[in-house]
Design goal:
elongated; four-stranded antiparallel β-sheet
């Protein structure tokens, strides 16, 4: 587990502001958090160097790209020893339709968030890719009808 990075109120404000708008200028960021430009820039560099801020990326509108079908798949494995978990983890990372993959402490082993164009495409991804991942014993799907909260919106 990575060590927790010590942060003060200004650091938290910087992170919060960048979560809202990762493209804001350092000048605007400094004004938003109540610092002058140079100290804000120094703090931003430290947050990046420490790994608190891992990078910056574009957030796309999946609906405008025709990818508005979201399903959550529960995956149960037939083997949960370390080697099997590593094989599953490596393989699931190669499926572009899987946006998120979480190991779960429950009656199943993994929860996947899968984004596709429609239910037909999801069925193909489930049948051809997810079900054929190493050590998959069974899956169960939940289709999202509406996204109520999403940090990237």
């Amino acid at each position: 587990m990575p060590a927790t990075v010590e942060m003060d109120g200004f650091d938290h404000k910087i992170v919060a502001a960048l979560l809202e708008d990762g493209r804001m200028s350092v000048t605007d960021l400094a004004a938003a958090v109540g610092l002058s430009k140079t100290p804000c820039q120094v703090r931003l560099r430290k947050l990046i160097a420490s790994g608190v801020i891992r990078g910056f990326c574009a957030i796309v509108d999946a609906e405008k790209m025709g990818l508005d079908h979201v399903a959550f798949a529960e995956v149960k494995l037939d083997d949960t020893r370390e080697q099997a978990l590593k094989a599953f983890n490596a393989a699931v990372r190669r499926i572009p339709e899987v946006e998120e993959c979480h190991m779960i402490a429950s009656s199943f082993d993994y929860l996947l968030k899968v984004r596709t164009a429609d239910i037909r495409r999801y069925r193909a991804v489930l049948g051809e890719k997810i079900s054929s991942l190493p050590h998959v014993a069974s899956t169960s799907t939940f289709v999202a009808m509406e996204t109520v909260k999403d940090r990237t919106r």
